[in-house]
Amino acid sequence: MIRFDDVSVRYEGAAAGPALTGVDLTVPEGELCLLVGPSGVGKSTLLGTVSGLVPHFTGGTLRGRVTVAGRDTRTHRPRELADVVGTVGQDPLAHFVTDTVEDELAYGMESLGLAPAVMRRRVEETLDLLGLAALRDRPIATLSGGQQQRVAIGSVLTPHPRVLVLDEPTSALDPAAAEEVLAVLQRLVHDLGTTVLMAEHRLERVVHYADQVILLPAPGAAPVTGGPAEIMAV
Ligand code: ADP
Ligand code: ADP
């Protein structure tokens, strides 16, 4: 579902050298794949190449090729990838563009040209899926961190992306809220067959949710992939 062919990324003027060097990877369809490694190793950069943020919004030079469901992320703008890949960052508040939960879920579909009835149905499905139905009319600013992160996930789910990319989605959450978010992700993978790629630096917290783990051991080093038990042993 996600494929990296010899991918390198270099930011202009970065003294530290390339952020990624010669990465080859595949993430199979319908798996929850965890991306781990120390801070600064290139996790956000790798996720950005999948969502199209790198190089379109961050600057930097991308060599090689990243495809998601067969679409080259460099030749599509992130907006043109909304029905293929949904992206959620660490800070849900940075993500929101509308006031209420329901409006936010609808917003992500606006550029897709869907019929209003289809959009309404998708909002209902997503409210149910994420356990947000009772909060639909609430201003997002009044929700807890875990609820906000679920709204952020919901807003990128309504275009029905095949891939969901998350950059440390639980980093600002307490353990109970983090568990809620992880349970939602697991449900997406199992019930809808969504492919999830999630960066996380606290391996122990999330490793038991993963089908596959990608470890970036050091800047510029090749990724190591394996099952949770194999990676825990590295
Ligand atoms: P991680 O997510 O693992 O912490 P990043 O992908 O954020 O790693 O960063 C990898 C390297 O690229 C770091 O040295 C970082 O300083 C550098 N970097 C990240 N984004 C940019 C940018 N927009 N411009 C210049 N350098 C960047
Ligand atoms: P429609 O455009 O009529 O909603 P789709 O072919 O896009 O039909 O989706 C068919 C079904 O797949 C939906 O009814 C929904 O249950 C499920 N589905 C697929 N992907 C997602 C997703 N990302 N979020 C929620 N439901 C999804």
TrEMBL record:
Residues 2-234 form the ABC transporter domain. It comes from the Bacteria. It is found in: Cell membrane. Belongs to the ABC transporter superfamily. Probably part of an ABC transporter complex. Responsible for energy coupling to the transport system. This is ATP-binding cassette domain-containing protein.
